[in-house]
Automatic annotation (TrEMBL):
PANTHER family recorded: ARGININE DEIMINASE
Superkingdom to which the source organism belongs: Bacteria
A Pfam family annotated for this UniProt entry: DDAH_eukar
Protein name: Arginine deiminase-related protein
Gene3D superfamilies in the cross-refs: L-arginine/glycine Amidinotransferase, Chain A
C-alpha cells in the first residue's frame, strides 16, 4: 500500500539516506611539523607552532577515522620534511595504480621518494614516478568515474593528461585563481560519486562554468567557510569530516542528509592544510593489498 505522505512531501524536507563506504587511508604523524618556510599565503614562519599540539589534534583525526570503521595506514615521518603530514600530496591511488607526486617547491621535493618507497614496500604493482609536476590528491580528486584536476598554482597543466593516461580515467581540468586556495582540495570536496561542494570564487570563469554544468546541484560554499578550509573535507558517503569552524557548510551538509563532523586542526592550518590534506585515499582493486 502506498503511503500518501511519502508521495506528497516535497523532496527538500526529506534528504536522501546516506550510506558510508569503508575507506582505506594513508596518514603521516606530524612529529616534525613546523612552519619554517613559506610556500603558500597561510604559512608564516614568524608565527610560533606547537608540534605537540599538532600531534594531539592529528591523533584525534586518526582515531576518528578508525571509530567510523575506516582503515588507516601510516607512513613514517622524515625529519626535516615538516609538510610531510599533508599526506594527500604524496600520490594519487586508483585501482591499485599509484602516480607519485612531483613537488613544485624544492622544500617538499624529498617527500616524493619517501612516498614512492612506501608504495613499493607495500607491494603495489604499479608505482609510477611522474614526469610532470603534480601534488597528488592536493590537485587530483577522484569523483566517481572522473578525476577533477586542479592547476594554476602547483600541478602543471601538462600533468593532467599524464594522470589520465596512467590512471585510465577521464580528467576534467580546473584552473584555480586565488592564491589562498592553491590546491584543488582547498576549494572543492567530493562528497559522493557525483556530488561535490566548492567555493566558486577560487576558480577561473571557464572552470566555474564547467563546474556549474557538470554539478548543477553542488553545494556552493561561502567565502567565510572556504577561508577556514571548510572545503578541505573528507567524505565517506555519509560522514563528512571538516574543520569545525566551517559552521554554515556543516548546516548545508546536514540539510542534504550528510553527517558533518567538525574537527579542530588549528595547528596544521598554520601550514595551509586541514582534514583532507592530512588524508590520502588508497583506492584498491586488489583487496589483498594492505589489509
Ligand atoms: N604547506 C603545505 C604546502 O603548501 C600544505 C599542503 C596542504 N595540502 C593540501 N592537500 N592542500 O604545500
Amino acid at each position: 500500500m502506498r503511503d500518501p505522505m511519502t508521495t506528497t512531501l516535497p523532496t527538500a524536507v526529506r534528504p536522501p539516506v546516506r550510506t558510508a563506504r569503508p575507506r582505506h587511508y594513508l596518514m603521516c604523524r606530524p612529529s616534525y611539523f613546523t612552519v619554517d618556510y613559506r610556500i603558500n599565503p597561510w604559512m608564516d614562519p614568524a608565527k610560533p607552532t606547537d608540534t605537540a599540539l599538532a600531534v594531539l589534534q592529528w591523533e584525534r583525526l586518526y582515531a576518528l577515522y578508525q571509530e567510523l570503521g575506516h582503515t588507516v595506514e601510516l607512513i613514517e615521518p622524515v625529519p626535516g620534511l615538516p609538510d610531510m603530514v599533508y599526506a594527500a600530496n604524496g600520490a594519487t591511488v586508483l585501482d591499485d595504480r599509484v602516480v607519485v607526486a612531483r613537488f613544485r617547491h624544492p622544500e617538499r621535493a624529498a617527500e616524493a621518494p619517501a612516498y614512492q618507497a612506501w608504495f613499493e614496500q607495500q607491494g603495489y604493482p604499479v608505482v609510477h614516478p611522474a614526469a610532470f609536476t603534480n601534488e597528488g590528491e592536493g590537485d587530483y580528486l577522484v569523483a566517481g568515474r572522473r578525476i577533477l584536476a586542479g592547476t594554476g598554482f602547483r600541478t602543471d597543466p601538462a600533468a593532467h593528461a599524464e594522470a589520465a593516461r596512467l590512471l585510465g580515467r577521464p580528467v576534467v581540468s580546473l584552473t584555480l585563481v586565488d592564491p589562498r586556495f592553491y590546491h584543488l582540495d582547498t576549494a572543492l570536496a567530493v562528497l559522493d560519486d557525483d556530488e561535490i561542494m566548492y567555493y566558486p570564487g577560487a576558480f577561473a570563469p571557464e572552470s566555474r562554468r564547467l563546474l556549474a554544468e557538470l554539478y548543477p546541484d553542488a553545494i556552493l560554499a561561502e567565502e567565510s567557510d572556504a577561508e577556514v578550509f571548510g572545503l578541505n573535507a573528507i567524505s565517506d558517503g555519509r560522514h563528512v569530516l571538516l574543520p569545525e569552524a566551517a559552521g554554515r557548510l556543516a548546516e548545508r551538509l546536514a540539510e542534504r542528509g550528510f553527517e558533518p563532523i567538525g574537527v579542530d586542526l588549528s595547528e596544521l592550518f598554520k601550514g595551509g592544510g586541514s582534514v583532507k590534506c592530512c588524508t590520502l585515499e588508497l583506492r584498491h582493486r586488489d583487496l589483498t593489498l594492505g589489509g
